Amino acid sequence: MKVFPVTVVCLLFTITAQAQDISDVIEWIEEITLEEKDNFWIINPYVTIDPEGGFLVADRDRVCAYTRSGKMKVCFGESGAPGAPGTLQSPDEPVRVSSGHILVPEVTTGNVSVFDSEGNFVKRYSRIIQGPVFLRNLPLENKVLVIGLVEINRGTRPRLLHVFEIEQGRIVQSFFSAPVALGDYGGLLYTIAPLAVADVRDRTIVAAFALFDELYFFDLNGNLKKKILLSLPHFRKVKQPEKEIASREEWFEFLKTFSTMNDIFWLNEKVILIQYTDTIDLQRRAVRWNLAAVTLEGKLLFDLRDTPRLFAVDGQRGEMFFSHPAHETENYWMVGRLKPEVLRAADLWP
Protein backbone atom coordinates (compact mmCIF):
# COMPACT_ATOMS: atom_id res chain seq x y z
CA MET A 1 0.00 0.00 0.00
CA LYS A 2 2.90 2.36 0.60
CA VAL A 3 3.98 2.10 -3.02
CA PHE A 4 0.68 3.30 -4.50
CA PRO A 5 0.91 7.05 -3.70
CA VAL A 6 4.45 7.20 -5.09
CA THR A 7 3.33 5.47 -8.28
CA VAL A 8 0.49 7.93 -8.73
CA VAL A 9 2.79 10.95 -8.30
CA CYS A 10 5.30 9.56 -10.81
CA LEU A 11 2.54 8.86 -13.31
CA LEU A 12 1.14 12.38 -12.95
CA PHE A 13 4.58 13.88 -13.45
CA THR A 14 5.13 11.79 -16.57
CA ILE A 15 1.79 12.85 -18.06
CA THR A 16 2.33 16.56 -17.46
CA ALA A 17 6.02 16.75 -18.32
CA GLN A 18 5.42 15.04 -21.67
CA ALA A 19 2.37 17.13 -22.57
CA GLN A 20 2.36 18.14 -26.22
CA ASP A 21 -0.42 20.71 -26.29
CA ILE A 22 -1.34 23.56 -23.98
CA SER A 23 -4.82 22.08 -23.48
CA ASP A 24 -3.15 19.04 -21.90
CA VAL A 25 -2.15 21.14 -18.89
CA ILE A 26 -4.49 24.15 -18.85
CA GLU A 27 -8.25 24.25 -18.50
CA TRP A 28 -9.88 27.20 -20.22
CA ILE A 29 -12.39 28.98 -18.01
CA GLU A 30 -13.48 32.03 -20.02
CA GLU A 31 -12.78 34.47 -22.84
CA ILE A 32 -12.31 38.24 -22.52
CA THR A 33 -12.62 40.93 -25.16
CA LEU A 34 -10.98 44.24 -24.31
CA GLU A 35 -13.20 47.14 -25.28
CA GLU A 36 -11.79 49.42 -27.98
CA LYS A 37 -12.82 52.83 -29.29
CA ASP A 38 -12.16 54.99 -32.35
CA ASN A 39 -11.04 52.07 -34.53
CA PHE A 40 -7.92 51.51 -32.39
CA TRP A 41 -6.86 47.86 -32.43
CA ILE A 42 -4.47 46.37 -29.94
CA ILE A 43 -1.43 45.01 -31.80
CA ASN A 44 1.36 44.26 -29.32
CA PRO A 45 0.15 44.72 -25.74
CA TYR A 46 2.17 44.62 -22.54
CA VAL A 47 -0.03 43.76 -19.60
CA THR A 48 0.08 43.82 -15.81
CA ILE A 49 -2.53 42.91 -13.23
CA ASP A 50 -3.86 46.10 -11.66
CA PRO A 51 -3.87 45.86 -7.83
CA GLU A 52 -7.03 48.00 -7.91
CA GLY A 53 -8.72 45.37 -10.10
CA GLY A 54 -8.55 44.49 -13.78
CA PHE A 55 -5.57 45.16 -16.05
CA LEU A 56 -3.17 47.86 -17.16
CA VAL A 57 -2.41 47.49 -20.87
CA ALA A 58 0.31 49.35 -22.79
CA ASP A 59 0.35 49.34 -26.59
CA ARG A 60 2.19 51.56 -29.07
CA ASP A 61 1.83 55.06 -27.56
CA ARG A 62 -0.76 54.69 -24.82
CA VAL A 63 -1.82 52.91 -21.64
CA CYS A 64 -5.38 51.85 -20.82
CA ALA A 65 -6.88 50.58 -17.59
CA TYR A 66 -9.54 47.86 -17.97
CA THR A 67 -11.92 46.11 -15.64
CA ARG A 68 -11.61 42.34 -15.18
CA SER A 69 -14.39 41.88 -17.76
CA GLY A 70 -12.53 43.97 -20.37
CA LYS A 71 -14.41 47.27 -20.06
CA MET A 72 -12.19 50.29 -20.70
CA LYS A 73 -11.90 52.69 -17.76
CA VAL A 74 -9.32 55.27 -18.88
CA CYS A 75 -6.62 55.73 -21.54
CA PHE A 76 -3.70 58.14 -21.49
CA GLY A 77 -0.37 58.98 -23.11
CA GLU A 78 -1.42 59.08 -26.75
CA SER A 79 -2.01 62.79 -27.43
CA GLY A 80 0.53 65.54 -28.07
CA ALA A 81 3.81 65.82 -29.94
CA PRO A 82 6.29 62.93 -29.54
CA GLY A 83 8.48 63.50 -26.51
CA ALA A 84 6.16 66.09 -24.96
CA PRO A 85 5.29 65.66 -21.26
CA GLY A 86 2.63 62.98 -20.90
CA THR A 87 3.28 61.32 -24.26
CA LEU A 88 4.70 57.81 -24.47
CA GLN A 89 7.12 56.13 -26.87
CA SER A 90 6.95 52.32 -27.02
CA PRO A 91 5.62 51.89 -23.46
CA ASP A 92 6.15 48.57 -21.70
CA GLU A 93 4.31 46.97 -18.79
CA PRO A 94 2.85 49.66 -16.50
CA VAL A 95 3.05 49.35 -12.72
CA ARG A 96 0.58 50.81 -10.21
CA VAL A 97 2.28 51.60 -6.90
CA SER A 98 0.78 51.97 -3.43
CA SER A 99 0.10 55.71 -3.90
CA GLY A 100 -2.25 54.86 -6.78
CA HIS A 101 0.08 56.41 -9.34
CA ILE A 102 0.92 54.45 -12.48
CA LEU A 103 4.55 54.21 -13.62
CA VAL A 104 5.09 53.56 -17.33
CA PRO A 105 8.54 52.58 -18.65
CA GLU A 106 9.54 53.32 -22.24
CA VAL A 107 11.56 50.61 -23.96
CA THR A 108 13.21 52.87 -26.52
CA THR A 109 14.16 55.82 -24.29
CA GLY A 110 14.91 54.51 -20.80
CA ASN A 111 12.36 57.02 -19.45
CA VAL A 112 9.70 56.34 -16.82
CA SER A 113 6.58 58.52 -16.82
CA VAL A 114 4.27 58.86 -13.83
CA PHE A 115 0.49 59.34 -14.13
CA ASP A 116 -2.18 59.64 -11.46
CA SER A 117 -5.10 57.22 -11.19
CA GLU A 118 -7.14 59.33 -13.66
CA GLY A 119 -4.40 59.25 -16.28
CA ASN A 120 -3.13 62.78 -15.68
CA PHE A 121 0.58 63.28 -16.24
CA VAL A 122 2.55 63.90 -13.02
CA LYS A 123 6.24 63.80 -13.97
CA ARG A 124 8.88 61.99 -15.99
CA TYR A 125 12.17 60.43 -14.94
CA SER A 126 14.47 60.76 -17.93
CA ARG A 127 16.89 57.99 -18.89
CA ILE A 128 17.05 56.31 -15.51
CA ILE A 129 19.13 53.55 -17.13
CA GLN A 130 21.14 53.38 -20.36
CA GLY A 131 19.24 50.63 -22.16
CA PRO A 132 15.57 49.64 -22.33
CA VAL A 133 13.83 49.86 -18.95
CA PHE A 134 11.34 47.37 -17.46
CA LEU A 135 9.58 47.58 -14.08
CA ARG A 136 8.14 45.26 -11.43
CA ASN A 137 6.32 46.23 -8.26
CA LEU A 138 7.99 45.64 -4.90
CA PRO A 139 6.41 45.15 -1.47
CA LEU A 140 8.47 48.12 -0.29
CA GLU A 141 7.18 51.60 0.35
CA ASN A 142 7.82 53.98 -2.54
CA LYS A 143 10.10 51.58 -4.44
CA VAL A 144 9.97 49.54 -7.66
CA LEU A 145 12.29 47.00 -9.25
CA VAL A 146 14.02 48.20 -12.42
CA ILE A 147 15.33 45.66 -14.93
CA GLY A 148 17.99 46.85 -17.36
CA LEU A 149 21.50 48.21 -17.85
CA VAL A 150 22.79 51.24 -15.99
CA GLU A 151 26.14 51.10 -17.82
CA ILE A 152 26.94 49.68 -21.24
CA ASN A 153 30.68 49.05 -21.36
CA ARG A 154 32.25 46.28 -23.41
CA GLY A 155 33.95 43.58 -21.36
CA THR A 156 32.03 44.33 -18.16
CA ARG A 157 29.42 42.21 -16.40
CA PRO A 158 26.86 44.84 -15.46
CA ARG A 159 24.27 44.43 -12.74
CA LEU A 160 20.81 43.85 -14.17
CA LEU A 161 18.37 44.48 -11.28
CA HIS A 162 17.96 47.76 -9.44
CA VAL A 163 15.81 49.21 -6.69
CA PHE A 164 14.42 52.60 -7.74
CA GLU A 165 13.28 55.07 -5.08
CA ILE A 166 10.29 56.88 -6.57
CA GLU A 167 10.28 60.09 -4.51
CA GLN A 168 14.04 60.59 -4.82
CA GLY A 169 13.92 59.59 -8.48
CA ARG A 170 17.08 57.53 -8.34
CA ILE A 171 18.45 54.01 -8.10
CA VAL A 172 19.44 53.18 -4.54
CA GLN A 173 20.65 49.60 -4.99
CA SER A 174 21.84 47.30 -7.81
CA PHE A 175 22.44 43.53 -7.91
CA PHE A 176 22.40 40.38 -10.12
CA SER A 177 25.55 40.67 -12.20
CA ALA A 178 25.27 39.36 -15.75
CA PRO A 179 26.82 35.87 -16.02
CA VAL A 180 28.71 36.88 -19.19
CA ALA A 181 30.39 40.08 -20.31
CA LEU A 182 28.90 42.61 -22.70
CA GLY A 183 30.33 42.15 -26.15
CA ASP A 184 30.40 38.36 -25.83
CA TYR A 185 28.64 36.17 -28.38
CA GLY A 186 29.81 38.19 -31.35
CA GLY A 187 28.39 41.43 -29.97
CA LEU A 188 24.92 39.93 -29.66
CA LEU A 189 24.42 41.08 -26.07
CA TYR A 190 24.10 44.66 -27.24
CA THR A 191 20.97 43.74 -29.22
CA ILE A 192 18.93 41.60 -26.79
CA ALA A 193 16.25 43.41 -24.78
CA PRO A 194 15.66 42.64 -22.05
CA LEU A 195 18.88 40.92 -21.00
CA ALA A 196 17.12 39.86 -17.81
CA VAL A 197 13.55 39.04 -16.76
CA ALA A 198 12.16 38.99 -13.24
CA ASP A 199 9.05 38.71 -11.12
CA VAL A 200 8.30 39.36 -7.46
CA ARG A 201 6.15 37.43 -4.99
CA ASP A 202 5.92 38.34 -1.32
CA ARG A 203 9.56 39.07 -0.40
CA THR A 204 11.30 36.98 -3.05
CA ILE A 205 12.53 38.05 -6.49
CA VAL A 206 12.99 35.38 -9.16
CA ALA A 207 15.16 36.40 -12.11
CA ALA A 208 16.79 34.93 -15.18
CA PHE A 209 19.42 35.97 -17.70
CA ALA A 210 17.58 35.91 -21.02
CA LEU A 211 19.96 33.56 -22.85
CA PHE A 212 20.50 30.93 -20.14
CA ASP A 213 18.15 28.32 -18.66
CA GLU A 214 18.78 29.18 -15.02
CA LEU A 215 16.68 30.82 -12.31
CA TYR A 216 18.10 33.02 -9.55
CA PHE A 217 16.24 33.77 -6.32
CA PHE A 218 16.97 36.96 -4.35
CA ASP A 219 15.58 38.53 -1.20
CA LEU A 220 14.51 42.17 -1.23
CA ASN A 221 18.01 43.24 -0.16
CA GLY A 222 19.48 41.72 -3.31
CA ASN A 223 21.05 38.73 -1.54
CA LEU A 224 21.16 35.57 -3.66
CA LYS A 225 19.18 32.83 -1.89
CA LYS A 226 19.66 30.06 -4.46
CA LYS A 227 20.18 29.29 -8.13
CA ILE A 228 18.62 26.38 -10.01
CA LEU A 229 19.52 24.96 -13.41
CA LEU A 230 16.50 24.19 -15.52
CA SER A 231 16.05 21.21 -17.82
CA LEU A 232 13.83 22.55 -20.59
CA PRO A 233 13.78 20.09 -23.49
CA HIS A 234 12.89 22.73 -26.09
CA PHE A 235 15.07 25.61 -24.84
CA ARG A 236 17.96 26.07 -27.30
CA LYS A 237 21.10 27.34 -25.59
CA VAL A 238 23.09 30.09 -27.27
CA LYS A 239 26.51 29.16 -28.64
CA GLN A 240 29.50 31.47 -29.03
CA PRO A 241 29.85 32.34 -32.74
CA GLU A 242 33.21 31.78 -34.36
CA LYS A 243 33.53 35.45 -35.31
CA GLU A 244 32.06 38.86 -34.60
CA ILE A 245 28.61 39.39 -36.09
CA ALA A 246 29.41 41.92 -38.82
CA SER A 247 26.15 42.51 -40.68
CA ARG A 248 22.43 42.80 -40.15
CA GLU A 249 21.86 39.65 -42.19
CA GLU A 250 24.29 37.65 -40.02
CA TRP A 251 22.53 38.96 -36.94
CA PHE A 252 19.10 37.84 -38.22
CA GLU A 253 20.43 34.39 -38.98
CA PHE A 254 22.18 34.04 -35.62
CA LEU A 255 18.98 34.98 -33.75
CA LYS A 256 17.29 31.95 -35.31
CA THR A 257 19.70 29.52 -33.61
CA PHE A 258 18.81 29.96 -29.94
CA SER A 259 15.96 30.65 -27.50
CA THR A 260 15.45 33.81 -25.45
CA MET A 261 13.54 34.09 -22.19
CA ASN A 262 10.77 36.60 -22.73
CA ASP A 263 9.17 36.63 -19.28
CA ILE A 264 8.81 34.72 -16.04
CA PHE A 265 5.81 34.71 -13.70
CA TRP A 266 5.03 33.52 -10.20
CA LEU A 267 1.86 31.48 -10.78
CA ASN A 268 1.54 30.58 -7.10
CA GLU A 269 3.85 29.94 -4.14
CA LYS A 270 5.32 26.78 -5.69
CA VAL A 271 5.11 27.14 -9.48
CA ILE A 272 6.95 29.49 -11.84
CA LEU A 273 5.97 29.94 -15.49
CA ILE A 274 8.65 30.63 -18.07
CA GLN A 275 7.76 32.09 -21.45
CA TYR A 276 10.53 31.95 -24.02
CA THR A 277 10.71 32.59 -27.74
CA ASP A 278 12.43 31.23 -30.82
CA THR A 279 12.98 33.66 -33.66
CA ILE A 280 11.68 32.36 -36.98
CA ASP A 281 11.88 35.49 -39.12
CA LEU A 282 12.71 38.72 -37.32
CA GLN A 283 12.15 40.89 -40.39
CA ARG A 284 8.55 39.69 -40.49
CA ARG A 285 8.32 39.73 -36.67
CA ALA A 286 7.62 35.99 -36.67
CA VAL A 287 8.43 34.24 -33.42
CA ARG A 288 7.46 30.98 -31.73
CA TRP A 289 6.08 31.36 -28.21
CA ASN A 290 6.95 28.53 -25.82
CA LEU A 291 5.74 27.99 -22.26
CA ALA A 292 7.25 25.95 -19.43
CA ALA A 293 6.39 25.46 -15.76
CA VAL A 294 8.75 24.43 -12.98
CA THR A 295 8.63 24.09 -9.21
CA LEU A 296 10.90 26.10 -6.92
CA GLU A 297 13.20 23.08 -6.79
CA GLY A 298 13.48 23.07 -10.58
CA LYS A 299 11.25 20.06 -11.28
CA LEU A 300 9.81 20.34 -14.76
CA LEU A 301 6.02 20.22 -14.96
CA PHE A 302 5.80 20.86 -18.70
CA ASP A 303 7.61 22.50 -21.61
CA LEU A 304 5.38 23.31 -24.59
CA ARG A 305 6.17 24.70 -28.01
CA ASP A 306 3.93 26.88 -30.19
CA THR A 307 1.64 28.19 -27.46
CA PRO A 308 -0.45 31.37 -27.48
CA ARG A 309 1.34 34.39 -26.08
CA LEU A 310 0.98 34.70 -22.30
CA PHE A 311 0.25 38.32 -21.38
CA ALA A 312 -0.09 38.24 -17.61
CA VAL A 313 -0.62 36.03 -14.57
CA ASP A 314 -2.79 36.68 -11.54
CA GLY A 315 -0.63 35.04 -8.88
CA GLN A 316 -3.35 35.31 -6.24
CA ARG A 317 -6.05 33.53 -8.26
CA GLY A 318 -3.79 31.27 -10.32
CA GLU A 319 -5.22 32.65 -13.57
CA MET A 320 -3.32 33.03 -16.83
CA PHE A 321 -4.27 35.45 -19.61
CA PHE A 322 -3.34 34.46 -23.17
CA SER A 323 -3.87 35.88 -26.63
CA HIS A 324 -6.70 34.14 -28.44
CA PRO A 325 -5.29 32.20 -31.43
CA ALA A 326 -8.56 32.50 -33.34
CA HIS A 327 -8.23 36.29 -33.68
CA GLU A 328 -5.71 38.50 -35.46
CA THR A 329 -5.81 41.38 -32.97
CA GLU A 330 -4.72 40.91 -29.38
CA ASN A 331 -7.67 42.41 -27.55
CA TYR A 332 -9.23 38.91 -27.58
CA TRP A 333 -7.98 36.83 -24.67
CA MET A 334 -8.37 33.34 -23.24
CA VAL A 335 -8.20 32.76 -19.48
CA GLY A 336 -6.96 29.47 -18.05
CA ARG A 337 -5.84 27.65 -14.91
CA LEU A 338 -3.54 24.68 -14.44
CA LYS A 339 -5.36 21.37 -14.49
CA PRO A 340 -5.60 19.44 -11.19
CA GLU A 341 -3.11 16.78 -12.34
CA VAL A 342 -0.45 19.45 -12.87
CA LEU A 343 -1.10 20.93 -9.44
CA ARG A 344 -0.85 17.45 -7.92
CA ALA A 345 2.54 17.00 -9.56
CA ALA A 346 3.58 20.26 -7.87
CA ASP A 347 2.09 19.14 -4.52
CA LEU A 348 -0.57 21.84 -4.70
CA TRP A 349 -3.69 19.67 -4.86
CA PRO A 350 -5.07 17.37 -2.15
Q: What structural category characterises the helix and strand content?
A: mainly beta
Q: Mean pLDDT score, rounded?
A: 89
Instruction: Please outline the major beta sheet.
Output: 4 strands, antiparallel
| N- and C-termini, Cα separation | 18 Å
Radius of gyration: 20 Å
Low-confidence stretches: 1-15
Number of strands: 24
Keywords: Signal
InterPro entries: 6-blade_b-propeller_TolB-like
Protein name: 6-bladed beta-propeller protein
Signal peptide: 1-19
Short description:
A four-stranded antiparallel β-sheet has the order 1-24-23-22. It has 350 residues and is mainly beta. The chain has helices spanning 3-17, 248-255, 340-345; strands at 26-33, 46-49, 55-59, 62-66, 72-76, 95-96, 102-105, 112-115, 121-125, 134-137, 143-147, 159-165, 170-177, 196-201, 204-209, 214-219, 224-229, 259-266, 271-281, 286-295, 300-304, 310-314, 319-323, 332-338.
Tell me the layout of helices and strands.
Blueprint: H1 3-17, E1 26-33, E2 46-49, E3 55-59, E4 62-66, E5 72-76, E6 95-96, E7 102-105, E8 112-115, E9 121-125, E10 134-137, E11 143-147, E12 159-165, E13 170-177, E14 196-201, E15 204-209, E16 214-219, E17 224-229, H2 248-255, E18 259-266, E19 271-281, E20 286-295, E21 300-304, E22 310-314, E23 319-323, E24 332-338, H3 340-345
Antiparallel strand pairs: 1-24, 2-3, 3-4, 4-5, 6-7, 7-8, 8-9, 10-11, 11-12, 12-13, 14-15, 15-16, 16-17, 18-19, 19-20, 20-21, 22-23, 23-24
Outline the structure in words.
Keywords: Signal. This is 6-bladed beta-propeller protein. By secondary structure, this protein is mostly beta strands. It has a domain of 136 residues. Helices cover 8% and strands 40% of the residues. The strands form six sheets. A four-stranded antiparallel sheet has the order 1-24-23-22. The longest helix is centred in the first third of the chain and has 15 residues. The protein is globular, with a radius of gyration of 20 Å. 36% of the residues are buried.
